[in-house]
Amino acid sequence: MIAVVGASGSGKTTVARQLLGAFNQLGQRSELISMDSYYKPVGHPLNNYDRPAAFDFDLLVDDLAQLKSGAGINVPTYDFVTHRRQPEVVRVEPVDVVLVEGLFLYALEELLQHFDVRIYLDVDPDTCFERRFKRDQVERGREPEDIRRQYFDQVFPGYQQYIHPSRAHATHQLEALPRDVVSWAKELLDSASQS
Predict the structure, then answer these.
(1) Contact at 8 Å (CB) between 113 and 119?
(2) What are the tens digits of pLDDT across the range 146-189?
(3) What is the pTM of this model?
């Protein structure tokens, strides 16, 4: 099980998807789970989503334990426009490699213990803001001023308080994926099998 952690806008989902493709090329059955699916069921646009309390850690810890034990899980779905968990779930069966990407995967020892490889994306905060600013307008229909307010009032302080210090738990820190993602994915598998 591999965790990918970094600030909002650091490229967690992009890196995780590229690794997923690389593992599949290596013949490893792989799945990707986003911690975003585990936001608490009912949110509000003014809630602070950039602190650990916004997440249903009990469900996430239980689901990862189930996968590790060989059982399938039902991953919740979350709608960022309505700020609500949806009734639909995504079924994930046990596979060779489970990638999990999210902000606070290193926040609890109960989560850390599940990950054989822990990646931290160490990307400049200005770059992260630019990416998030564009994404939130295009994908989430948010207004520029609201994005700025939330970023500077909640996102960046959460990064400073929780996410950036959590890099100490990473087994690998990087700014971007190496050019040869498949070779690096193989190295990750080798290092995980030796741990």
Answers:
(1) no
(2) 999 989 999 999 999 999 999 999 999 999 889 999 999 999 99
(3) 0.92
φ, ψ dihedrals at 27, nearest 5°: 80, 15
Residue 102: pLDDT band with limits 50, 70, 90: very high
| Cα radius of gyration rounded to whole Å, the chain | 16
Q: Which domains does the chain have, with CATH numbers?
A: 2-184 (3.40.50.300)
Interatomic CA distance for residues 181 and 177, integer angstroms: 7
In which region does residue 11 sit, left (phi positive, over 0), alpha (psi from -120 to 50) or beta (all else)? left
Q: Are strands 73-79 and 84-92 parallel, antiparallel or unpaired?
A: antiparallel
Residue pair 52/126 in contact (Cβ under 8 Å)? The answer is no
Task: For residue 160, count other CB atoms closer than 10 A to its CB.
Answer: 12
How wide is the angle at C-alpha 16 spanned by C-alphas 11 and 21, nearest 5°? 130
Please classify residue 137 by burial: count the beta carbons closer than 10 Å to its beta carbon, then call 0-12 exposed, 13-18 middle and 19+ buried. middle
Q: How many CA atoms lie within 13 A of 93 on its CB side?
A: 1
Which own/partner contact pairs does 87-94 have at CB distance under 8 Å and 24+ positions apart?
A: 90/37, 92/31, 92/33, 92/67, 93/31, 94/67, 94/70
Look at strands 2-6 and 97-101 and give their pairing.
parallel
Is 5 in contact with 121 (CB distance < 8 Å)?
A: yes
